[in-house]
Amino acid sequence: MTAQRSPQTGNNLDPWYHHYAERAAGLRASEVRALFAVASRPEVVSLAGGMPFVAALPPDLVVSAMDRVMRQQGPVALQYGSGQGVPVLREQILEVMALEGIRAHADDVVVTTGSQHALELVSKLFLDPGDVVLSEGPSYVTAMVIFKSYQAEVDHVPMDEQGIIPEALRQHIKRLKNAGRTIKFLYTIPNFHNPAGVTLSWARRLEVLEIARTNDILVLEDNPYGLLYFDQPAPEAMRSVEEDGVVYLGTFSKTLAPGFRVGWALAPHAIREKLVLANEAAVLSPSSFSQLVISEYLATADWKGQINTFRGVYHERKNALLDALDEYLPDLTWTNPNGGFYVWVTLPEGLDSKAMLPRAVKELVAYTPGTAFFADGDGRRNMRLSFCYPTPENIRLGVRRLATVLRDELDL
Ligand code: PMP
């Protein structure tokens, strides 16, 4: 039987509107999400999403790891596991993190359902309504959705070519403290930032850590792209210098494949214990099957070689994007990332990337408007272009189409 909701308790679109918890108010489809539907049509060149190019991973590598896991430890792979994650995998994760200068103990690693879920768990542990999360401006859109769902406010600290600006961070902290606000953590993406494409310099890493330490602010270091560098590795992780004040997040989504949904948090002991409890409460245990397949893959395949393959693919695509921008849109400015998936573009005065998007989609090219990456509506003159998924040829085609749209807008 379909229940009739009374008009006093619902609204026209959603009869349960007035019943949701307050935290659900922030859960609206992001601009990126709404875009995916349109941009996934085959005729559209999408420079919008952040999907890794998983076709560069030979399927046989995964099939053979799966096969061995099922033959050798099938009942374990199909069973619930530990809420902290498979111990062997946690040891192997230490080897992955060692590539970025991190020394740690496997006891302090908590495997999560992608690093997205680690963001959710950390937020659940720390955020009360009205708390403030500091983050770069712009910042990763789906992290902000989580922070807002815990009714925290995101305060954007400006960044430049070298990442978040320490002096601005100091000022923001001072202003917030003077206003009596509670700052719970600094959420930062130091390497090949999503969406800005820039990398926090080593000197600034140390300075930011020092500011966080003196102000008693936890640092949440989100590092999905660090190993996907082009010319030179990024500076070592912030967690490599500071153990007690940093929760570090990693993932296999970009160095292997996001379909496994396996990421991790490396946290100081006390936080780690709470993270395990929160993980158990949320999912009982992360997927045993995925973890064991990844563990087998790491033990038997040339995983570092595979990361090099990914780096090569993305480097070529970044070059294709920047060359095309140089050729077709020389009036714009953009960042030149040394890794990762994203270029952050600044449009000439007077243009609005959000308003322009429907026109672009009509011209069969999609991008993500800058406004998606700010909690406060900023970013109209920016757009994020992703070079991870389309082929170099399609990237060129996409930029050519974008140039047509921009020329029309500017009436050139
Ligand atoms: N953090 C950042 C900055 C990201 O770009 C992403 C994926 N787009 C994630 C976290 C989540 O990744 P996953 O859950 O697949 O590990």
UniProtKB/TrEMBL annotation:
<keyword id="KW-0032">Aminotransferase</keyword>
<dbReference type="Pfam" id="PF00155">
    <property type="entry name" value="Aminotran_1_2"/>
</dbReference>
<keyword id="KW-0808">Transferase</keyword>
<feature type="domain" description="Aminotransferase class I/classII large">
    <location>
        <begin position="60"/>
        <end position="402"/>
    </location>
</feature>
<dbReference type="InterPro" id="IPR015424">
    <property type="entry name" value="PyrdxlP-dep_Trfase"/>
</dbReference>
<protein>
    <submittedName>
        <fullName>PLP-dependent aminotransferase family protein</fullName>
    </submittedName>
</protein>
<dbReference type="GO" id="GO:0008483">
    <property type="term" value="F:transaminase activity"/>
</dbReference>
<dbReference type="InterPro" id="IPR015421">
    <property type="entry name" value="PyrdxlP-dep_Trfase_major"/>
</dbReference>
<dbReference type="InterPro" id="IPR050859">
    <property type="entry name" value="Class-I_PLP-dep_aminotransf"/>
</dbReference>
<dbReference type="InterPro" id="IPR004839">
    <property type="entry name" value="Aminotransferase_I/II_large"/>
</dbReference>
<keyword id="KW-0663">Pyridoxal phosphate</keyword>
<dbReference type="InterPro" id="IPR015422">
    <property type="entry name" value="PyrdxlP-dep_Trfase_small"/>
</dbReference>
